[in-house]
Structures are given as structure tokens and as C-alpha cells.
Design a protein that fits this description.
CATH superfamily: Vaccinia Virus protein VP39
Shape: globular
Number of domains: 1
Strand content: 15-25%
CATH topology: Rossmann fold
Number of helices: 13
Distance between the termini: 40 Å
Oligomer: single chain
Bound molecules: S-adenosylmethionine
Structural class: alpha/beta
Order of helices and strands: HHHHHEHEHEEHEHHEHEHEH
């Protein structure tokens, strides 16, 4: 089985996303910015409160905050936070009493996100330099891990999911958008670092992707396909031939079930920004999950199906300066 040269891959990914941070208005082979965020379903009223420069460099592939169901005061870690749009979006949901940590290995992205956080007085947001395969965070220190368009870029996906599981508290959620494929990509594609940096070459076959998440100890609760479009001809061809596509996914770390409270905010939001009742959102996610891959039947209904109008944030634990 072919493998990509990880040194070359890291160099290409860092170079690509340095440019995305510094020159967001250049033409890329993928879509960027506010039009993309709008089309993926980010609610406009929340985007309007996020630093414009962070949105300009947004390079995600889907919307998942309705699945994440962030509540006030929760602690969130963003794997591959880029220029910070999703971290700032999460901050708007958890409020000033919450905590959001973005992790990225591209210095220019980190510098931009930090500058924007400081300019906006967003004290609850912090950006740490690090690799998603080796997260700079303590065990069980987050309620929710999010990630957008990043895990496909890693040649060590199992390790990424193991790290996400490690930093989540029992009952914590992994809510992500990423690129997967219906069919296994051929060796020449898998060995092409340029195609990886374009979010194609690293697309794992969807069953293997789900298995990697579940082997890490998480229970997949919902999956749906996103209206993400590839722009370059090469990417469109690969998408057509191998079924390369964007999905949003929710997985939960087994353990203490989140309790309910009327004072927390679940923020279930549809892709069009209209908040449906939580039971409806859960039902839609289940239908989409079964429609996409029927044999992925689930043994338990999961937290969104447990008549949960809200998530109760876990009481905050004392934390060091380095790790919440
Ligand atoms: C497609 S961009 C997405 C950025 C952001 N999530 C967004 O939606 O705009 C991928 C980001 O992940 C970062 N990245 C890729 N691989 C990484 C890794 N192994 N460890 C840390 N960061 C990584 C890149 O530097 C880049 O900022």
C-alpha cells in the first residue's frame, strides 16, 4: 500500500496555509471565505460578530456546530484552527465563561488568529502551536473537540482520533467536518503530496474513517454530507471517480451522560440557520446517517436522541496556564 512522504506533505501543507493566512484573496484551487461559510450553512448573525479577516481565510469544508451543541461555559479545542474562524464561532457560543483552544502547526495562521483574538478582546480564546497528532493539552480537559477540513491532511488519522479522545472528558463530543471518499483511492493518488495538500489525496475511505474513530473509543452518533464543492478540474475528477466528498460527523466519548439544564444553550441550528427543535435535529441526523451508509446501524440512540434540550456544562476544573 502506498504511503505519502510525510516530510514533504507537512512542508506543502504549511506552505499552502501560510498563503491562505497571508493572501486570502488570491485564487486557490479551493473555495475560501464568507461565501463558502454562507453556503455551508453558518448562521449569518454569528458570522457578523466574528473578525472579518478570520472569515476571509476560512478554508473549512462543512458546518457542524448544530451537531456540537455547544453550551455556555464549555471548553472547546479546535484541531487545525487556521486563522480562527471556528474558534471565534465557538467562543460566541460558550461565552466569556467558556474556553476555546485552537491548535495549528502553521505559524502564519497562528499569528493571524492570535492578533485577531487580541484585537477583539477575546480573552477566552487561545491559540497554541502544535500538531493534531500530539495535542498540546491535558487529558480529559475539554467538553468538545471540533475540526474543519484538517484531519484528511494527516497521514496518522488513528493517532489524531486517539488524541481527540484523550483530551475529551467522558461524555465529551467530537464534532467535525472533513473530506472522505466512498472508494479507496489508488496508490498514485495516495502517494501524491500535492493532492493531499489539496484535500483529496488524504481522503480516507468512509468505512475506514468511521472505524478509526470508533477504534479510538468514540461512538459515532451522526453523519451527513455537506454541500462542499471542489473547484479544480483534477479535484472534481477525483471527486467524481472516487466519491470524494465532505461530511459532518458527531461522535461521543462514552462515560458520564451529559445532564440537562434549562440554563444552558444547546444552539441546535440547521444548515440554513433556523433553529429546529432538538428532537427534530436528532431525527434528521439519524435519517442522514442511515441514508448515507445503512449498514452503519447504531446500538444506542445517543445523547442528541435522549430528549436533551440542552447540554449541561461540566463544572470547570482548576487548570494550569498551559492546559485548561
Ligand atoms: C484546510 S485548513 C482549515 C483551517 C480551519 N479549520 C478553517 O476551517 O479555516 C487546514 C489547517 O490545518 C492545519 N494543519 C494541517 N495539518 C495539521 C497538523 N498535522 N497539525 C496541526 N495543524 C495542521 C493547517 O496549518 C491549516 O491551518
Amino acid at each position: 500500500m502506498a504511503v505519502v512522504d510525510t516530510v514533504e506533505l507537512t512542508a506543502k501543507v504549511k506552505d499552502m496555509y501560510r498563503q491562505v493566512a497571508e493572501e486570502p484573496h488570491r485564487t486557490y484551487h479551493f473555495e475560501l471565505g464568507r461565501p463558502l461559510a454562507d453556503r455551508l450553512g453558518y448562521p449569518a448573525d454569528v458570522l457578523d460578530r466574528i473578525p472579518v479577516e478570520a472569515i476571509e481565510s476560512f478554508a473549512g469544508v462543512g458546518y457542524f456546530f448544530d451537531l456540537a451543541g455547544l453550551g455556555r461555559d464549555e471548553r472547546v479545542i479546535d484541531l487545525g484552527s487556521g486563522s480562527g474562524m471556528d474558534a471565534f464561532f465557538a467562543a460566541a457560543q460558550v461565552g466569556p465563561g467558556g474556553r476555546v483552544v485552537g491548535v495549528d502547526f502553521t505559524v502564519e495562521q497562528l499569528n493571524k488568529a492570535r492578533r485577531l483574538a487580541a484585537a477583539g478582546g477575546l480573552d477566552q480564546v487561545e491559540f497554541r502551536e502544535g500538531r493534531i497528532e500530539d495535542l498540546p493539552a491535558a487529558d480529559e480537559s475539554f467538553d468538545c473537540a471540533i475540526s474543519n477540513g484538517v484531519i484528511n491532511l494527516s497521514a496518522e488519522k488513528k493517532r489524531v482520533f486517539a488524541e481527540a479522545t484523550r483530551v475529551l472528558r467522558p461524555g465529551g463530543r467530537l464534532a467535525i467536518a472533513d473530506i472522505v471518499s466512498e472508494h479507496q483511492l489508488t496508490d498514485p493518488i495516495v502517494a501524491d503530496a500535492d493532492l493531499w495538500a489539496s484535500c483529496i489525496g488524504g481522503a480516507a475511505q468512509q468505512d475506514a474513517y468511521r472505524q478509526a474513530i470508533e477504534s479510538a473509543g468514540l461512538r459515532v452518533e451522526a453523519i451527513r454530507q455537506n454541500p462542499y464543492e471542489f473547484i479544480s478540474e483534477r479535484a472534481r475528477n477525483a471527486s467524481g471517480t472516487y466519491g470524494v466528498k465532505s461530511i459532518s460527523l458527531l461522535a461521543v466519548k462514552p462515560g458520564r451522560r451529559p445532564r440537562l439544564t434549562s440554563s444552558s444553550n444547546l444552539s441546535i441550528t440547521s444548515r440554513r440557520g433556523t433553529p429546529p427543535p432538538p428532537r427534530v435535529a436528532a431525527a434528521v441526523c439519524r435519517v442522514l446517517l442511515h441514508a448515507w451508509r445503512p449498514r452503519w446501524s447504531r446500538s444506542s440512540p445517543g445523547p442528541l436522541a435522549q430528549a436533551a434540550p440542552v447540554w449541561e456544562p461540566k463544572p470547570r476544573r482548576p487548570h494550569s496556564r498551559a492546559c485548561p
